[in-house]
Each structure stands twice: as structure tokens, then as C-alpha cells.
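User: Protein folding is very new to me. Would you mind checking the protein record under this note? It all follows right here:
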Amino acid sequence: MQYQYVVSAHKSSAVSACASGRFTSPQNDNLIVARGNRLEITCLDKAAGALTPMGSEHRLNGHIAHLFALQPADRPTALLLALSAKQQYAVLSWDAASGQVVTEGAGEISERTGRRREGRSLAAVDAQSRAFAVCAYQGIVHVFAVDARARRGVRAAPAHFIDEVRALDMCFLAGDTLELAVLSEDAEGARRVRAYAVGAERMEELWVCAVDAAATHVVALGGGRLLVVGDDAVSVVGSGGRVRGVARRAARVAAVAWVERGARLLVADSDGLLSLVVVRPAGVFVERLGAAPVASALAYLGDGCVFVGSACGDSLLARLRSTPSPEPQLPAGLAGSVLAQRVATGDSFIEPLAAFACLAPLVDLCVAGQGAGKGEGGGNGGVAAGSVVTCSGHRTTPSIRVVRNGVGVEPLAQLDCDGVARTWALTLADSTGSGCAQRRVLMVASLAAASRVLAWAEPGDHGEMAGRAEMADHVEMAELAPCGWATDRPTLAAGATASGGCAVQVTRDHVTLLDFSGRAVAQWPAAPGQPISVAAVSGDAVVVASGARLALLHVRGDASVVCVSECMLPSAVACIDVQMPDAKHVAVGLWDGDVQVLTLPALGRAALRVPALGAPARSLLLCTLGSACYLLVGTGDGRLHQLALLDSFLGVRDHRCVTLGVQPLLLAPFWNRGQLNVFAACDHSAVLFAAPAHRGRLMYANVDAPEITCAAPVVGSAEFPDALCLVSGGRLWVGRPDPVQRLHVRAWPLPPWAAPHRIAFNGAVYALATTHEAVGDAAGGDAPGEFGRLSVLSAQSMGVLGSVLLEPFEMPESLCVADGLDLRRGGVFAMGSSVVLPGDDDARSGRVLLAQWDERARRLLVVGELAVLGAVYALAPFRGMLVAAVGSRLLLLAWQKRTQPLATAASTDGSGWALDAGWELVVVCSQQAQIAALSLCISGDTIVVGDVLASAAVFRYREDGGRHRLVPVARDAAGVWTTAVAALPPPLPQNRALLAPPPVDMEMSVRLPMFDQAFASAECTRFVVADAHHNIIRIAVPGATATATVSSEDADVEGRTAVEARWHLGDQINVIRAGALVMDIPDPEFPDFLRPHLLFGTLQGALGVMASVENGHIGRILDRLQTNLAHLVPTPGMWDYQKWRAYKSDQRECMAFGVLDGDLIETFLDLPTEIQRKVFTGNETATAIAAAAAAGGDPSDSERERKLEYWSRYERVEVESACTCLAVLGVSNIALKENVDLDFVMRLVESLTRLH
């Protein structure tokens, strides 16, 4: 079978909830932010006005809908209450000793007869943290008492029935007794507040009061009163009715938070404005504070600091001022950001402190192909090839975001130099002469039979230059006169002494010491007949090898080079590295495959024994990354071994291996933004770095540059201290790398009236096209409140090259590249629109426009249009034509010669309308699709259409005697709202035999033989469907040939589909596009088994990758690993992983199958080695697993007991009638079941991490 691997490359960044309190210690002011299913805990630094992360993020098995801080009277620190979107709750605390979140209590809210609320549930917490209430069902409230003496930390009361069917908000009244107030709306639209006394068995009504029809929130005041906040008014109500109120600016209330309980309340509205409601005895007052992001959650942190969390743009940390600032000063991190133009307004009481990037809502995306980037390494500020460009943000803060995987390198200077094998960069300092210290950066390039010495000249530097290279950004490379440098032979090693006053050059014959001017001041000759083969320089220590003889040389202060010690090794030396920076150890790789670590200066064998690597080492590096010491070994077959060492080099704590390429590796340490990293140069270069968010685990980032064979850090440059000297092809060049991280996100702010809605990329013109949905009168004149615009942006500067304004009330709906049409011209985009007139609920008409970017005239011209009846929700190129989803129909459009002359001439007023006089866009085929076709995808001759209510339908193109036909083939029976569809390519021919299912055993669901013959065919079409319930479904449709040859008992295959995978993502997918975030890197160990095909973007701002695992054995290994991780590794909240990923819609609910959770599987690499072994074997009891984890500060005994209860409820998959997949159900021993070892699984998961 074929598994689908789904992983988040950029996790959801929208803030769904937040809370503040002293959670980690009584002295810390903490902010806890929920983003999807992740908790981020930070501490406020009041002096710096910044948030400091408290360890890594914490993953829960559920989408977090609510967060509250509980402060019981008997606890010095606060508790955290988390509620999921699937009616689960958890009470969490912080374990300061281990730095982990501990579960105090957890459970689930369910009612057999109740009807769930529309939208998310309501929740309220008592001000004294005695209880919390949840309204997840219509007319039912569940109240839970927070009691540390209870077994689960929470004591549940029976379900309480209330009169309010449509509750809008609720809160506990302040007082000694528990009283709950509920804001509701009746069938006539009238709204009222009803107060209840909460008892042990039931709730008794206390009073009821009518409120404004626009009231949306209720918060408790003292004395049994309530503050009712509405879209246009704020009022105080109580048992005696409405006391007083005040009008406020009309806007929907988005979030509220207390600044001072009972006195001052922060209110954020849907327009992104913050207001302060002040409650005094004299009345209620509303003060406008200023502009901020559109809030989804608010939290006041103390000392005037407030966090504005947003789900539709960047979040903001700000400080409230007592007086307005006429010209607010933006911090460095905010200057030029998306929020800069919004918060940098005069007369604002808000002082911005920091911004937190967010891609949500991710409406559309496209993948920039070849030709997008013209720089060497993607660091030129434009859109590099392989980048993902997204439409993000709300209409108040719209933006275009460019997401790029890997580390880009910005070229600073380059020199054509063929045959360079190695290069070194060193900095020399000269304080003699005039008394003014001079610095010079030298680069030594070693060729096959010669060496070249180049100088890096910066402004103010002078040197003896023999010739200059290409200059960029005030940087010049120039070749020095030979002087004492040996340029007639290759260089084996070069470096600067500890003082920086001299340089060391090692050749086969000599070790030469040179002063600042390049004059040789000392030499150490090699023994006759024993030339130097390998060498390494580290400060004043020089280690050279002649065959199997190793010698340690030392540079003395009197400018002499002496031999300190020698030793003989069992085999010839292949590579050497001296430990940085204290030079106490030296690592030596031998040609027989052994690696030895020797102590300095005696060159004695250290206690460390390196395990066998399987291939001779070609490059070594002893370094400290993060807080651990590592021995990194690069072999000749492209593998990199990372060995974590014990203290004092007593042994190897952990050994892992990853395959980077197929050519020998060369390792070079370099500093980037104050962090030490390692550059691994090979045919697919990567940067190795320690990730604090993953417990210091070493991670790899691809390098966005041509094949780099050698790298060396440039240390000592005044202007570019993080530069690298690189060898690529026939060039020697200097570049400045980006900050070392896997993903780089860059934002281009747009005007508030120009929210991007669709985006496409056309490599023929190196441009991006985007349509804009706008609100306001930005067009000037009498333009309607909403209008559309089609723009073309430069792929390099993101500046607008040209645009066309649409008709009044015409809004863009779809966009695609249309170069496949027979237009005899390039740079053509097709855009579909809809026209919704005032008073209409839906679009009655629309248009398909063909727009071309004219490079010579620098204009965007509309060369073709077609009016249609209905909205054009989707467009796609198809066999030289266009497929359009218009309303409920599927249209096939072609570019043909006009049968009648054009009625109107081309516009010459510069408006951009220049319709072709000889050709036009016509409908050649029309087919009824479903209710409303919203999305479509193409796979060969097959067209898949996603519907608003009827899931997906499949059509095939037929051409009979020049007649075009779209024939219905199959239809998915599920009645779901489809948000996106995408086609999957068929498996590679060499992989089809590897997809055979294994024998069925007791731990797997029954595999039905139905559809085997039809769905095993290479013509079988597979596509992915995303629905509005946040699910992913993979559906297979048999090919035309397969359905014609099925047996008689399977004759009903025609017209039916097979569900191969169901899985709950927890976020709504808005768009799926073909493409990948990384280059196509062949993996020698797993060739073509892991194929990333699709990228998807979600409503919460996540950017994910879908890959096909085209090897049944590997898929089953990962499935077993996923199951073991879900059941053997506890997570905060103890929520059931099965319930989290279970497929759920209005019609059915079933267990997930056929999909591999990459976010869960990749956490395997972050586990301690001992826990990894136990998860891999899967045969340990729950107590043994938890006991082994307890050494690292993992769950308490109560958590282990609760985990045992979850395991006891683990049941089998409910087999579907059309299911052709398997699902591993129970914890298993992967070693026994699949005949693999732990090291193989580690390498497999490491390969998966490189997909994004």
C-alpha cells in the first residue's frame, strides 16, 4: 500500500488563545500562547520589554480553543486550563525541576443526547479559581470544581440544563457563592443576560435582564454586577436591571481582557483598534488607545505590557502609555515589518515592543519555478527559485510572504579560478610601523599543482595588489604578489597564529611561517623521502602527517617552528582536525577506516573509542554545538556521522548518521549571528546547527547555492564578520549567509485596501501575478466599497509593474497561468471573477479574463474576455485549453479565431484593455458538475472537481471526431464541503512492486480484496481532498483500461471510488499546490521512496508538505513507529491521540488510517536515547516506560495511571466498505515485526526531516 506522509514545514502561527499568570514561578510574569495544538510559554522581561522563551514548545493532542490561568489560594504558582475543539479539558502545572508541563487533571465532555453548539464551545473561569464551566452543547452547561484533593485534580458536577439554546457568552459573577451569568439570543433576535446559582445537582435562576441587541461579551464586576460589551455600546447590568451605559465606536468586539479587575477593561475590535473601558462610580467611560493587529486573544502581563494575539496577521507585544506619543519610535525588529505602518501612527497610547510573524490566514500560494531568482544563493532579496509565495493577512495588515527553505548565501565578490580543491581564510594583524594596527584578510586557494593567495580589501585597507576581482558591496578580492608564499605547489593547510601576527602555510615539503608582509620568517622541513600528506592548523599548533607518522609542531613567540612530539599510527592518515579553541585534542582519520582521538601535546591515545563507521573518514571536526561536544566525521560516500561525546572525552554518548549526498564531505565551522555552525560541503551542501527548540538536537538546513565543494569562514572582517569563502564549480567567491534556520520568511506589506486573494507565477516574465480584494474608496472617485484589481509584481523587488482595475462590484475568484493556450505570446494569466450586485446573495454573472504582461511596453494588457453566468471559482490549464468551474457547471474553454469582427476597438487610453481582434475565448464543452464547484485539479485526462456540499466528482476528457466531451466517471458519496483538491502522480514503475500489502495479522484491520485489480493499475487516479471539517481524504479512481478488464463480480467498480486514507489535520486547508520546499536531492539509501508532491496552506497559517511513501515496508515501519509514539510517550494534557486524528464530519466519525503524521514521527529524534530504544521495541510496560522517562523529569505517577487507562480503551479500526488500506492498531516491536534495527529507523526519520 502507499502511505501519505503529512508534515508541517511551517507550523500554524495564528494565536487561538492566550493567558497570563505566574505559571513557572511566583516571581515570573508568564505569557502562555496557544497556536493550534502547541503551547508556547514565555517570561516577560520588564526591563527590556521582551518575551523570553521557557524551553521548547509543548505539543498537545488536540487543537487548543481556550486557555485560562487558574490561581488557587493554596498554590504559589498558577495552573493552566486548556480546552480543545473536541470537548477535552486539561489542568496543567509547571515542574520547575525538570522544566516540563505536568498534567494535574484531564477529561472529556460528552453527552449522548445533546446537540453540539455551532462554532466553538464557551468557557468561563471563576475569579477565585474555584471552578470552571463549559458550554459545549446547546442548553447544557458542565461545571467542574478545581480540587487538588480529587484524584484527577478536577471534580465534575452533573450536566446542568439551562433555558438558553443559543448562548453567546458566559462568566462567573464575583462573590462568595458560585453564580453563573449567561448571555443569549432568542429566536426573535432579542438578547438577555440570565444569572444562575450553581448547585451540586442543578442550577437555579436568580434574575434576568434584557440587554442591547448588539451585546456579545459579559464580564463580571463586583457586587453581583456585570459589564456587558457590545458592538456599539457598553453597559453595566445587575439584578435590578440595566444601571448605566455608554456608546462606543461601532465595530465587532474581537477580544477583551482585564487590566485591573473590576475597573479597567481592554477591548479589541474587528478593525484592529484597542479601547479602554473604565468603570467608575460616576459612570462608564471608553477611551480609544490606538491601532493594533486584529485580535483573536488578549492578555495583560503587568507593568503596562499587553499581548495582542492575532489569527489574521502578526501578533504584537506593546506597552500602554499614560500619555499619547505624537511620533512613536519603532524598535529595530518592527521597522519595515507588516505592522510598522499600522502601529506607527501619531496620538497613540500604544508603544510597540515586538512583533511575532504570522502567515494566517494563508489564502493562496504558488511555487516560484526556475528563473525566479537570479542571485547565486537566493540571498539577493528577490524571490529565489523554489520559494513559496503566499497571500497572507487581514485587510488591515495584508502582505505577500515569501517562504524559502535552507540557507541562502548573498554573493559579495567572486573570481574565476578553475581547479580549486581547498581554500582557507585567515586574518592577520600588524601593529608595527606607524603604531596604527592594520588588518588584512587573506584567502589561500590550493590547486592541483599551485596555490593562489588573495587579499580581501575593505574601505580603508591597502595592500600590494597584483590584480583585482569583481567587486560587490565595497568588497574586493585581489591577488597578492608571491613574496614568501609557496605558490608553485599545492597547499595542504593554512591558518593564522594565535596572536594573528603571522600566517602558517603547509605544503608537501615545508611548514612555513610568514609575517604580515608575506615574508617567510621560519620553516620546518619535512624529513627526506617522507613528504607531508595531511596537515591541520589551529592557532600556534600545527599537526602534520607523513604516511602513518604524526607530528605536533608549535609556533613560538620568537617566530620559530619546533617539533614538540611525534607518534606512529597503525595506518596512513587520511584527515586531521585539532580541537577548537583550546587545542587539547586532535582527531585523526586513518585510511583503514579507524578514527582516533589523541591528547595534546603528548599525542597519546585518549580514552575515547570511536565505533566503526564503514568507510574511511575524509573530514573531521571536534567542536561544541549548543551545550554538547561532538566529533563530526564526513566520509567519502557523502555520509556525516555525528558522535556526541561524554565529558572529558571518556566515550561516545550518542552516534547518529545522515546521508547528505554522494560525494566526499568537507566540514568547516563558522559563526553566524553569535552561534557556531558547521558547513558540510558536498554535492548537496548543508549547514549543521543546534536547535534550542528541539532540546539542542543537531539539525540540517539545505544550502541554496550551486554545488559547493569547499567552504572556509572569513574571520576578522570589519564589515562582514560572518562571511564565507566558497568554492563552486570554476569560481572562488565570498558570500554572506542568511541566519541559519530551516525556513526563512520575508514579508512585503501591502496597502490596507489591497488584500491579496489569489496568486500565480509565470517564469516566462519572472513576475508574480496577484488579484486583490479591496475595501474602501482606494480607487478614488465613485468606486464601490469593494472592487477587484489584477496586478503584476516584479519577482525581484515585489514592486507593481502594472495593474488592471475590474468593473464595479466585480471581485476576483481564481487565477492561473495560461501560457498553454495557443496565444502565440508568453506571460499570459487567466483570471476568473464574480459580480455580486447590491441586494443579491450570490453571483449571477462573472468573467474569464486573459491578461498578458507586455515586457516591451511595460503594460499589463487584457487580450481576451468571456462573460459567463455565475462565479468562476476555479481555473486550470488543460491540453492547450482552460477548464473553468463556473457555478455548478464545468466549462472547457479554447482560444479560437473569431467568427465575427470585434465590436469595440482596443483601448488606447492606457487602461490596459487591448482585446485581440482576430481571436477570442469560446466555450467548447459544458458539463453539469455538482451543486457549486469550488476547486478543481488535473491529472492527465482526468479532472477532479471539489464541491461545496457533495465532496468530489471525477470527469474524463474525450474527443470524438473533433467534438470535446467531459464524461462523468465517479463521485465520492460523502457529503462534505470541499475546500481544496489536488491530484497525486502515480507511483514510479520501479516502486509498484514494493507497494504489495503484507499478510494480515491480528494487529491490523482486515484488508478487503475488493477493487484490487482495478486500483493496482498504473492508470489509477489518486487525489487528495480537504474538507471544511479539517480532514484530509485520499481517494482512488480506477483507470479506463482497468475498469474495462475487471471480473464480473467486480463489475460495479465503474462509477465508484475507494477511500485509501482518512485523517484529521485540525486546521482548514485553503489551498493545495504541486511543488516542494527542497531541491530534488537523491537519497542513496532511500532512492525515490519518499517523494514530496504537494504543498498546502491552511487557515491558521501553517505551510505543510504531502509526500508519498512508495515502499510498503518503509510505510509499515513508520506506521508502527507512529503508533508506538502515540501510546508510549505521554504528552501534556493526556488527550487521546486517536480522538485527535480521528476523521470526523457531520455524517460519520471513524479512526484515521493511511496517513503518517510527520509532526509526531519526527519528535522521535528529540527523545533521549534510552526512550528511543523503548519506543522502538514497543514491548515495555507503561510503568517501565514512565520510570525510564522520570530520570529526565517526565510525567508523574498519576499521569502514568491515566495513560494506562487510555491504553485500555484502545480499540480496533471500524473497517469501511470501500477501504483498501491497513492501519497498525497496537504497540509492536518494530525490530521483530519489520526486521530492522534502531539505527535504520533513525536514518529513515532523518531523511524525512529533509523533505521540508
